[in-house]
């Protein structure tokens, strides 16, 4: 009687390389189980297991978590697979009164007037004392240096990341649990020990991690910073300075990825010379901003020193695109604009036609993609209106929408004739914008939200309520 062929009998006979490719499609939990089958299967599963659980190593700043990272980085099998070292800037808070009661008074900490020295407040934030002995002792920095010394010999470039831990998102007693390999190691115990929401020390974490990497000569290929609890307009000055100082001390090419709680992102990839803004209007320099609103303006200045060949702007709300003139350089080969809301207080001046005319002068351009380009109307007292040189006209729309010559809201230009095509598009758009002005003046209001040329094949029976005013 022939022995039936089963997975148990055939798997051990396959070459390890083939097994590794098969195991790359296995679920995370099953990878753990596979490594318990036998030595051969365990060895074949090591690579996909390491890529899944250690390629992005996420850790909170506690002795147990960082010491575990050190063990992984020094592991002969798993250590070389580390590509990104991600550290949470969360710190455990302690009540000020409890902290004062637990610590013996230090007469040396008083000045001549009997007041506490200013340096004793360095770990206070919003009336809370930050429990920071692991960092203040220097133990964290020593361990990170050893970790980076191990990672220095890895075959892959190393990314350092400072990401706010998303393990706790609702309240101290309500937790969001991401997938195991997406969770910061030690986060469960970290947040269980805290009786209130953690304090985030992003600037301190960036400075310490960067200093540890520089101390051992690690070449950092990318910097990622995720500010999940910080709106774009209130990034503190210490975080801005930390990022600026980091960028200014880099001597090798660097990728930069910044993200905020509202899904705003800035991504720069140096190898492709590609820059992408997504919902990041506050990253555009503006001379009228107050100091605290110039969110990471230094990052923008640093980016301007790098040649940018590909530029992508999406979900962007700006008063005028001339703010981005610094990015529209002669080096550009590709431009993609998607879901742009351009301020149109002075609609008569033809905001998009002027932009396309500017693009037509970029002689190296071989691709231009345009999608859902809006004219954002000014709002006063909860109502929008169209402002023209001839007067102010009522409207039921929040924005107007540019319709291209083919009647669509998406348009692609590519090839060596892009500049000439952009000249034609600028002329079409200027005529469409002028036609819209005349129509509004004749109707004494804005009836239709579409801005289109006379010959554009538009389906006027299709109503899009997305643009209606509230």
Helix content: 25-40%
| Rounded average pLDDT | 77
Major β-sheet, in short?
13 strands, mixed
- Rg, alpha carbons: 28 Å
Distance between the amino and carboxyl termini: 77 Å
Structural domains: how many = 3
Kindly estimate the percentage of residues that lie in beta strands according to DSSP. 15-25%
Instruction: Work out the number of β strands.
Output: 22
Question: Total number of helical segments?
Answer: 14
Low-confidence stretches: 96-121, 168-181, 285-293
What is the overall silhouette? Answer: elongated
Class computed from helices, strands and strand pairing: alpha/beta
Please summarize what this structure is.
It contains 14 helices and 22 strands.
């Amino acid at each position: 009687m022939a022995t039936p062929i089963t997975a148990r009998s055939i798997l051990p006979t396959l070459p390890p390389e083939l097994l590794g490719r098969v195991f790359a499609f296995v679920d995370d939990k099953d990878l753990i189980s596979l490594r318990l089958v036998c030595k051969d299967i365990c060895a074949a599963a090591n690579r996909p297991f390491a890529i899944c659980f250690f390629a992005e190593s996420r850790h909170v700043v506690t002795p147990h978590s960082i010491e575990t990272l050190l063990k992984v980085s020094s592991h002969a099998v798993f250590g070389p697979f580390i590509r990104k070292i991600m550290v949470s800037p969360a710190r455990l808070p302690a009540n000020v009164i409890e902290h004062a009661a637990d610590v013996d008074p230090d007469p040396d900490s008083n000045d001549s007037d009997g007041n506490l020295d200013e340096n004793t407040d360095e770990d206070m934030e919003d009336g809370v004392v930050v429990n920071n002995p692991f960092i203040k002792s220097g133990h964290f920095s020593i361990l990170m240096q050893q970790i980076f010394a191990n990672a220095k010999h890895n075959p892959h470039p190393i990314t350092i990341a400072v990401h706010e831990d998303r393990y706790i998102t609702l309240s101290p007693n309500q937790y969001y649990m991401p997938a195991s390999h997406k969770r910061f190691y030690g986060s469960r115990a970290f947040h269980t020990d805290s009786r209130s929401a953690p304090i985030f020390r992003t600037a301190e974490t960036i400075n310490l991690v960067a200093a540890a990497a520089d101390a051992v000569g690690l070449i950092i290929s990318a910097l990622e910073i995720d500010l999940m609890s910080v709106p774009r307009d209130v990034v503190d000055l210490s975080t801005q300075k930390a990022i600026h100082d980091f960028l200014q001390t880099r001597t090798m090419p660097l990728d930069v990825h910044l993200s905020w709680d509202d899904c705003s992102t800035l991504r720069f990839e140096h190898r492709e010379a590609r820059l992408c803004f997504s919902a990041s209007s506050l990253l555009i320099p503006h001379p009228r901003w107050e100091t605290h609103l110039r969110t990471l303006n230094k990052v923008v200045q640093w980016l301007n020193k790098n040649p940018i060949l590909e530029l992508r702007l999406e979900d962007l709300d700006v008063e005028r695109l001339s703010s981005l003139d610094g990015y529209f350089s002669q080096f550009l080969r590709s431009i993609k604009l998607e879901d742009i809301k351009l301020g149109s207080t002075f609609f008569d001046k033809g905001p998009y036609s002027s932009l396309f005319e500017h693009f037509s002068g970029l002689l190296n351009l071989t691709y231009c993609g345009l999608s859902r380009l809006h004219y954002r109307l000014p709002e006063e007292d909860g109502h929008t209106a169209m402002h023209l040189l001839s007067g102010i006209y009522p409207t039921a729309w929040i924005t107007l929408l540019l319709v291209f010559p083919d009647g669509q809201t998406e348009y692609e230009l590519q090839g060596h004739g892009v500049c000439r095509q952009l000249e034609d598009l600028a002329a079409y758009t200027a005529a469409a914008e002028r036609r819209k002005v005349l129509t509004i003046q004749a109707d004494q209001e804005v009836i239709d939200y579409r801005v289109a040329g006379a010959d554009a094949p538009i389906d006027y029976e299709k109503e899009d309520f997305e643009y209606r005013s509230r």
